[in-house]
Amino acid sequence: MTHEEFRVRYYELGPDGAIPLHKLCDYFQDAAGIDAHTLAFGSEDLGDAAGLTWVLTRMQLTPLCPAKAAGGDTLTVHTWHSRSERLMSRREFYITNGKGETVLKGATWWLLIDIATRRIARTPQMLIDMNPPTPEFVVEENNPKMPDFSGVQPAATLPIIVRNEDIDSNAHVNNTHFTAWALESTPPEIASSRALKELVITFKNECFAKDKLTMSVHEEQSGHGKAFWHVLTRENDGKETARIYTRWE
C-alpha cells in the first residue's frame, strides 16, 4: 500500500474552493503509478522489460464530501493492488484531507496491452501471485446497465475537440479528462443543485488528438435522486469511446 501526499496548488481550486473531481483523479493516477512501481509492475518497468503498458478499462468513484482546500494544504492518496486475474487487475484507493476525512473513494480495473500492437496481454503470473489471501475492497463493484435510448432525444449534448494537451504518454486521451467531460455535460440545473454520489466509467475505444467527439446525455428514471448516462462517440467513425454513469442527490 502507498500513502502519497499531494500539496494543493492554488490553480487547482475551483470557484467554490474545492478541488474538482478530475484533479483528484490526477492525484490518484500519480499515486497508483508510484505504488505499481514499488511492486516492479509500473508502466516504466513493464515497458522496458516486455513492451507492455497499463490501460484503464473501468473506474468507479464515490465522492463523500467536497474536497475543500486552500493552496498549500495537503491531501493524501491511499492506494493498493487488490486483485489480479488472467486479464484484469483491480486497484483500490481513497483520498483523505488534513483532518483525516475521506473525501473520495473508488476502484479501478486495468488491462495490460502490447505497446506495439495495441492488443491485450495476459497478466504476468508474478503479479497474480501477489494477490492478498483476503482482498480489501473499498467499494462494492457496481455495473449499471444502460437502458435502450434508441430514438430518445438526449437531455443535453456536448461537442468536444481533443487537444494535444489531453494526450498522455500512451499517445491517447488520459482517463481523467473523461471525468471532466462527463461533469461538464451534466445539465446545469442538476450540477448546481445536487451533489454527485457516484460515477462509473467504462472505457471502450481510445481517443486521439484532434478527434471530434460528442457527449450525449440521457436521464435514467431512478428512485434514488437523479441518474444520467453520458455516451461519448467519435464523429468520423461513430464509435462509442466511453460510457459514463452518474448519480446525483
TrEMBL record:
- Domain Acyl-ACP thioesterase N-terminal hotdog positions: 3-125
Which CDD domains does this chain map to? Answer: 4HBT
Which keywords, in A-to-Z order, does the entry hold? Fatty acid biosynthesis, Fatty acid metabolism, Hydrolase, Lipid biosynthesis, Lipid metabolism, Transit peptide
Q: Which InterPro entries match?
A: Acyl-ACP_TE_C, Acyl-ACP_thioesterase_NHD, FATA/B, HotDog_dom_sf
List the molecular function annotations (GO) for this entry.
acyl carrier activity; fatty acyl-[ACP] hydrolase activity
Domain called Acyl-ACP thioesterase-like C-terminal: residue spans:
159-249
Q: What Pfam families does this protein's entry cite?
A: Acyl-ACP_TE, Acyl-ACP_TE_C
**Transmembrane ranges?**
none
The record's similarity note reads: Belongs to the acyl-ACP thioesterase family.
Write down what this protein is called. Acyl-ACP thioesterase
